[in-house]
C-alpha cells in the first residue's frame, strides 16, 4: 500500500483571539493570507514541515470562501474542519482508496474523503511535496479521532492512509475506559479512540452528545514551561489532565490541544 503523511491541519475559527493562542503554542507569528475574493483570512503556522492553518470568515457576508467557512462553523462548530494527508504517488493512493470502496469528492481541483466516510473528519488528499523545515517551539505529532466502532474505523483509516493499523488495546491514560488504534504517518500519526462498553467516561459522553470526530490535536511543546507561560500571558486556560498539559478548547478555536508528548503503550 502507498502510505501518506500528515502535513496540515485546517481549523475553522470564529474567535480572533485564537490566533494569539496558536501563536503562543507555536512560538512564532503566522503567515497571513486573504482569499482572492476578500471574504476569508488564513493564518498559517509552520511547525517543521507541517502547517496548522486557521481559517476565518471576514465580515458579515455569506458568499465566497468566507461564507463557506462561516457555514461550516455554523453547522459543525469551530474546530478542525480538514486534515490534509499527502502521498508520494497520489494516483496510486487514490486508486487504492477507491478499490477499498471509499468514495472521493472532487471539488475545485482538490480531492477529499468526506466526513461521512471518515468518522466525522474531512480528509484532503494531496501530492507530497518537498517542504523546507522551519524551526518552532512545537511540532505536529498527531490527531486523535473518537469513533464508535474501533475495528470498523480501523479498516476505513487503513484504506484512507495506506498505513497499517496498529491495534494498541486499552489506552494507558484512560483508566480502562477507552481503547486505541494508531496509524503511523512518517513521524506523525492518526489515533482512533473508542470507549470501552459499559465503562462511563468523558469520551463516551462526548461521543453520545457530539458524534464521531476530532477528539484532540497534539502539538507537543519543545519547552513546556516557556509555552505555558506564553499561553497564560495570552489569557488562555491551560489545565493538567494527567499526564498531559492541555489547552482548553474554548480558547483554541474549539480544539482540545495537547502540549505534551504522546504516551507510549506497554
User: What CATH architecture of the largest domain would you give?
Assistant: Roll
Order of helices and strands: EHEEEHEHEEEEHEEEHEHEEE
Q: Helix content range of the residues, please?
A: 10-25%
Largest sheet: 8 strands, mixed
Strand content: 25-35%
Q: Calculate the terminal CA-CA distance, rounded to whole Å.
A: 27 Å
Oligomer: single chain
Structural description of this entry:
This protein is α+β, with helices and mostly antiparallel strands and 266 residues long. The chain has 2 domains: 4-127, 2,3-Dihydroxybiphenyl 1,2-Dioxygenase, domain 1 (Roll); 142-258, 2,3-Dihydroxybiphenyl 1,2-Dioxygenase, domain 1 (Roll). Helix content is 24%, strand content 35%. The protein has 6 helices and 16 strands. Helix 1 runs antiparallel to helix 6. The longest helix is centred in the N-terminal third of the chain and has 13 residues, at 64-76. The mean pLDDT is 93.
Summary keywords:
266 residues, alpha+beta, 2,3-Dihydroxybiphenyl 1,2-Dioxygenase, domain 1, 2 domains, eight-stranded mixed β-sheet, 6 helices, 24% helix, globular
How would the blueprint of this fold be written?
Layout: E1 4-12, H1 18-26, E2 31-34, E3 40-47, E4 50-57, H2 64-76, E5 79-87, H3 90-99, E6 105-107, E7 110-113, E8 122-127, E9 142-146, H4 150-161, E10 166-170, E11 178-185, E12 188-195, H5 202-210, E13 213-218, H6 224-233, E14 238-241, E15 244-247, E16 257-258
Amino acid at each position: 500500500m502507498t502510505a501518506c503523511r500528515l502535513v496540515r491541519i485546517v481549523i475553522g475559527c470564529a474567535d480572533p483571539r485564537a490566533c494569539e493562542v496558536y501563536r503562543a503554542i507555536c512560538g512564532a507569528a503566522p503567515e497571513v493570507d486573504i482569499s482572492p475574493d476578500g471574504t476569508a483570512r488564513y493564518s498559517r503556522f509552520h511547525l517543521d514541515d507541517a502547517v496548522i492553518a486557521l481559517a476565518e470568515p471576514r465580515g458579515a457576508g455569506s458568499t465566497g470562501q468566507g461564507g463557506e467557512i462561516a457555514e461550516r462553523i455554523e453547522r459543525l462548530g469551530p474546530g478542525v474542519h480538514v486534515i490534509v494527508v499527502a502521498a508520494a504517488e497520489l494516483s496510486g493512493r487514490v486508486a487504492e482508496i477507491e478499490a477499498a470502496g471509499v468514495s472521493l469528492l472532487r471539488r475545485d481541483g482538490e480531492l477529499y474523503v468526506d466526513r461521512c466516510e471518515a468518522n466525522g473528519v474531512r480528509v484532503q488528499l494531496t501530492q507530497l511535496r518537498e517542504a523546507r523545515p522551519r524551526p518552532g517551539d512545537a511540532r505536529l505529532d498527531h490527531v486523535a479521532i473518537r469513533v464508535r466502532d474501533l475495528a470498523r474505523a480501523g479498516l476505513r483509516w487503513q484504506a484512507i492512509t495506506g498505513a497499517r493499523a496498529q491495534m494498541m488495546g486499552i489506552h494507558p491514560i484512560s483508566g480502562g475506559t477507552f481503547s486505541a488504534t494508531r496509524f503511523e504517518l512518517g513521524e506523525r500519526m492518526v489515533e482512533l479512540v473508542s470507549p470501552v462498553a459499559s465503562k462511563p467516561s468523558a469520551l463516551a459522553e462526548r461521543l453520545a452528545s457530539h458524534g464521531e470526530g476530532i477528539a484532540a490535536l497534539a502539538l507537543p511543546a519543545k519547552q513546556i514551561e516557556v509555552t505555558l507561560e506564553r499561553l497564560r500571558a495570552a489569557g488562555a486556560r491551560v489545565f493538567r489532565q494527567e499526564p498531559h498539559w492541555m489547552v482548553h478548547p474554548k480558547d483554541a478555536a474549539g480544539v482540545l490541544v495537547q502540549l505534551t508528548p504522546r504516551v507510549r503503550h506497554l
